[in-house]
Write a structure and sequence with these properties.
The protein has 357 residues and is mainly α. It has 16 helices and no strands.
Length: 357
């Protein structure tokens, strides 16, 4: 047992929730952002502007989402170069075999392949053959074996959430908005979660509402402490910056969470706001304005996941644009500071509690 622990330590193989549930998941979201998401945005711009060159660039970026996710996961797991480069093939296979649940398949399979590759790395004199062979053989074999059922399960779960939101838009609007919004602020990846579940449609709209409530809410209500820099870093970056303050005083989180509970059903019941772009957009909020951009791209050209659930392209009306503007920006910017002011009057939040380090 001691020898095994020593071996794992030497190989930097760490079985922990942080390593796999935070580091790997967060890196996967970045890989997905740098391929599928940015590719979708560029392709849509190219299509709307009539620039085929941009459309082609976007399509190329979108096509390598599997390798990008797998390499990002390998990077987060601190894989040696031979393992890291071999994960490109693993990611392609897992994403292709996983179908709608490709990102979830990539997450599981890339972790296993990377750790197996790390275990054999530099253990033989023919490392240049052994390490990539082990990484790719194990990864692709797992992709053929378990990626399809993983994809089916993830797709089914996402479909259940989508159907439940359509049947109970008020209560599910609250639940999805609050939970995805909380995930966005926690040191995990709401974007990866939404991508894994293929969260689009009305449920995707609720998720966008919850994420925007957290980011815009924290940015505006902490303006007195953090000024313009904090407004930009939280409003266009991430509300995760507030986690140290939340740990010190959890009550600073009350206003954004309650705001998301309000804007969620406003999105689902009042404006019927659907996010039919790439599912990752559902968990991005106003980070680079990807949430609103995802809603826009979904109007013009729904993603494959959205099309599978019956989505169709539409010409947005003034009410659609009004709903997006109110849910994503205006309501969080107004409601959250008002709720936080109430918390201040109750003595739950004090000056300096929201100051970024």
């Amino acid at each position: 047992m001691a020898d095994m622990k020593s071996f794992l330590k030497r190989k930097n193989i760490e079985f922990s929730a942080k390593r796999y549930g935070i580091d790997a998941l967060g890196a996967m979201a970045q890989g997905l952002f740098c391929s599928l998401l940015i590719g979708t945005i560029i392709k849509t711009l190219g299509a709307q502007l009539g620039v085929p060159f941009l459309t082609d660039i976007g399509a190329y970026a979108m096509s390598v989402s599997g390798p990008a996710m797998a390499v990002a996961i390998g990077y987060a797991l601190q894989s040696p170069p031979m393992v890291l480069f071999s994960l490109a093939a693993v990611g392609w296979a897992a994403n292709a075999e996983g179908g709608a649940g490709g990102p979830l398949a990539v997450l599981f399979i890339a972790i296993i392949a990377a750790e197996c590759g790390k275990a054999v790395s530099k253990e033989t004199k023919i490392d240049i053959l052994v390490t990539p062979a082990v990484t790719i053989l194990i990864g692709v074999a797992l992709a053929k074996l378990i990626a399809p059922p993983i994809g089916t399960a993830a797709s089914a779960f996402g479909f259940v959430i989508d159907r439940a939101t359509k049947l109970q838009p008020f209560w599910m609007g609250i639940a999805v908005s609050v939970l995805v919004g909380i995930a966005l602020t926690l040191p995990i990846s709401s974007a990866a979660i939404c991508s894994v579940l293929g969260l689009t449609g009305l449920a995707g709209g609720a998720a966008v509402a919850g994420c925007c409530a957290q980011m815009v809410g924290f940015a505006v209500m902490s303006f007195r402490e953090n000024r313009v820099g904090g407004l930009i870093s939280q409003g266009l970056g991430t509300s995760m910056l507030q986690m140290p303050n939340i740990v010190r005083n959890p009550r600073v989180w009350i206003a954004p969470i309650v705001t998301s509970a309000i804007t969620g059903p406003v999105a689902t019941c009042l404006f019927h706001l659907e996010m039919n772009g790439a599912p990752i957009n559902s968990g991005m909020g106003t980070c680079g304005m990807c949430g609103p951009i995802g809603v826009w791209t979904g109007w013009l050209a729904p993603s494959e996941q959205a099309l599978e659930k019956g989505a169709a392209a539409l010409a947005p009306t003034g009410m659609d644009w009004l709903g997006l503007l109110l849910v994503a920006i205006v309501l969080p910017a107004v409601i959250c500071p008002l709720l936080n002011e109430l918390c201040r009057r109750l003595g739950w939040v004090k000056d300096g509690d929201l100051k970024l380090e």
